[in-house]
Design goal:
heterodimer; A: about 240 residues; mainly alpha; Fumarate Reductase Cytochrome B subunit; two-stranded antiparallel ribbon; about 65% helix; elongated; B: about 400 residues; alpha/beta; Rossmann fold; Cytochrome-c3 Hydrogenase, Chain A, domain 2; 2 domains; five-stranded parallel β-sheet; globular
Chain lengths: ~240, ~400
């Protein structure tokens, strides 16, 4: 450890596991999702009657990571309110302190670290709001995705019982109205929000790297080791 | 604010698209008894249409009793009723001449009337539709002008509150409805519809124009066309969309009405679940090619010759609910996907703007209404991503130029 620095724990093992599970899930979801939206590579057209399930495997992969995503989202939603480590909800509620911190962190970025009037040892309001936006986008993908999924269960049956499609209809039918009134609107929306999420990812990666370089507090290590390092006098 | 409250209410109270296929023995036993009573009652009535007798017509067309019963059991299955209902369905078909029907034609192409009439050899569905007592049909009748008006008045008067009203075509609402007038008095289509709808027992909107506005309502919808359900409130209304509506589904609705005296169970878009509870994709003969990733890449290629999946040339079967992949058209002869032409989602709302293009949604460079589909989502997304990249680049470059904030002044 660099002299005069102190180690600060920022992510628990569970949080880091979820982070990397989400990273892998998202990469798989985007690759397979783009294929489902518009099959961009061809199967060997000359092969007749062979055991190939190109679209089926893409859909399988897409749904499996989607379901993993859905479950981690439930865990994240729980931790958002009830985490014993750090409850992000307290950083997102618009109190005077949080609003001030939000703009201070934003100004820090805009002034290229010329101004840094906040405590960088804890999760700050700017990042917390930014992550909250991400989870709202993910929740929309969850609901629209399950709505698209339940179209394939038109018989009302599924391998785990009739309760599952019934529940999916109850929980996701509102997305048809919310996205424009037709099933195609749900698809368009599911596809468009993927681009919002990719845009979000681009900023997220950039910002974490930028913080690491400019703050010199090893922020990039948080997602791997769970800790960052701040100067003793600040910690 | 009220609009928003209404919007939220609509969002959370709209009926589910879920289909209930088995409603339990007790339900069907009760239904059977009430249907039986109804059929007996109808039998005692004098037929309205005395011109044609169905047994004669069937015999003339070379349909024997066995074929007729096979058809009746197929219709029973289609209506999601247990097999024990087959004799009742057959009876109901024979009693079709007890059902007075008024057929209005508004803003459309007459495609549904065509579907009703233009089959090479009339099959049982079409024959049964011949038997209904069609009291008024603008396109088919010999009468015109004031004479036609009088016939309509007579029909409304004679069968007041008893007739089924079939509506084909959208209702133009722009310029106070002046885009479409009908009859000798130049009545607007809207007024015409409202006048005839007032004393109908139930309304059946046939085809996509009458249900959701269809092609006349496609962007930019110059005539302000809307579907029947947008203007008629407080009447039993059944939508049979598709372009054209399948005669099999029209027969299904009429038989269901004759048999039970009620409208069939409807989905959130007022479509009978027995017909629109199926996704095209799940019953498609090309589905295996979809799963295998074998697609027609362009018209007439090797894939097309091998009946590969039409998804990449824009088939919208995965987003379309209708039974045409099961019952097909013209008594099971063929259907769009069968002839190598993808589904255009004609039974879904806004199909002309949102479904009917020959590419998958993600590759559709078409103009769309209200900045929705027309605006290609990929281009928009890529543009957004590029903008984010440029922003990041500027910030990163500025960061390098400005240099790191060192410890100076803080230590």
């Amino acid at each position: 450890m660099k002299a005069g620095h102190k180690q600060v724990k920022r992510m628990t093992g569970m949080m880091r596991s979820i982070h990397w599970v989400n990273v892998i899930s998202m990469i798989v979801a985007v690759i397979t999702g783009l294929y489902i939206a518009n099959p961009y590579y061809q199967a060997f057209i000359a092969d007749d009657a062979v055991d190939k399930y190109v679209m089926a495997w893409n859909r399988w992969g897409h749904f499996i990571v989607a379901i993993i995503f859905d479950v981690t989202s439930i865990i994240v939603a729980y931790l958002f309110f009830f985490s014993r480590f750090e409850k992000p909800i307290f950083k997102v509620v618009p109190t005077g302190k949080n609003i001030k911190e939000f703009f201070e962190v934003l100004l820090n970025l805009l002034t290229l670290n010329r101004r840094k009037n906040f405590d960088s040892t804890h999760a700050d309001s700017f990042n917390s709001v930014f992550f909250a936006v991400f989870h709202i986008l993910l929740a929309w993908m969850l609901f629209t995705g399950l709505q698209l999924y339940v179209h394939g269960l038109a018989s009302g049956l599924s391998s785990i019982g009739t309760w599952w499609p019934t529940m999916l209809h109850m929980v996701t039918d509102w997305t048809i109205q919310a996205s424009g009134g037709t099933l195609m609107d749900v698809r368009v929306s599911h596809h468009t929000v993927m681009w919002y999420i990719l845009t979000w990812i681009a900023f997220h990666i950039y910002y974490q790297v930028w913080r690491t370089i400019f703050w010199e507090e090893a922020d990039i290590a948080i997602a791997i080791s769970g800790s960052k390092f701040v100067k003793e006098d600040k910690a | 604010m009220t609009d928003r409250i209404e919007g939220v209410k609509k969002l959370f109270t709209s009926k589910s698209a879920r289909v209930e296929t088995n409603r339990g023995d007790a339900h069907y036993e009760k239904l059977f008894q009430s249907c039986l009573a109804r059929v007996e009652e109808l039998k005692s009535q004098t037929p309205i249409n005395k011109r044609l007798d169905i047994s004669d017509v069937l015999e003339t067309q070379g349909v024997n009793r066995r074929d007729f019963m096979k058809w009746a059991s197929a219709v029973t299955g289609m209506l999601m009723l247990p097999a024990s209902f087959t004799p009742l369905v057959a009876d109901a078909a024979l009693l079709m001449n007890r059902a007075p029907v008024i057929w209005l034609e508004l803003s459309d192409c007459a495609g549904n009337s065509e579907a009703l009439l233009r089959s090479d050899g009339p099959k049982i569905d079409e024959i049964v539709l011949d038997i209904i007592s069609l009291e008024f049909h603008e396109t088919l009748q010999a009468a015109s002008g004031h004479q036609a008006e009088k016939q309509l008045e007579d029909a409304i008067h004679t069968f007041k509150d008893k007739y089924l009203l079939f509506v084909e075509g959208a209702i133009p609402m722009g310029m106070n409805g002046q885009f479409g007038t009908i009859g000798a008095s130049g009545e607007t289509m809207y007024d015409h519809l409202m006048r005839v709808a007032k004393h109908s027992a139930a309304i059946v909107a046939v085809g996509s124009c009458a249900t959701f506005g269809g092609v006349p309502a496609a962007s930019p919808n110059p005539t302000g066309a809307v579907g029947v359900m947008d203007v008629i409130k407080g009447k039993p209304l059944i939508n049979i969309p598709a372009c054209p509506a399948n005669p099999a589904n029209m027969v299904g609705v009429i038989i269901h009405y004759i048999l039970t005296g009620q409208v069939p169970e409807l989905d959130s878009l007022l479509r009978p679940k027995f017909a629109f509870g199926y996704r095209i994709h799940d019953n498609c003969e090309r589905r295996a090619h979809f799963d295998a990733g074998e697609y027609v890449e362009e018209w007439g290629d090797e894939g097309a010759k091998n009946n590969f999946c039409l998804y990449k040339v824009g088939c919208k079967g995965p987003m379309t609910f209708n039974n045409c992949s099961i019952v097909r058209y013209n008594e099971g002869v063929n259907w769009p996907v069968g002839v190598g032409r993808g589904c255009i989602g004609c039974s879904e709302p806004d199909f002309w703007d949102k479904y009917a293009y020959e590419r998958p949604m993600a590759d559709a460079n078409i103009k769309a209404p209200t900045g929705g589909v027309e605006k290609t989502v990929d281009e928009f997304g890529l543009g957004l991503l590029t903008a984010a990249g440029i922003g990041i680049g500027i910030h990163a470059a500025a960061s390098i130029v400005a240099g790191k904030k060192e410890d100076r002044g803080e230590a």
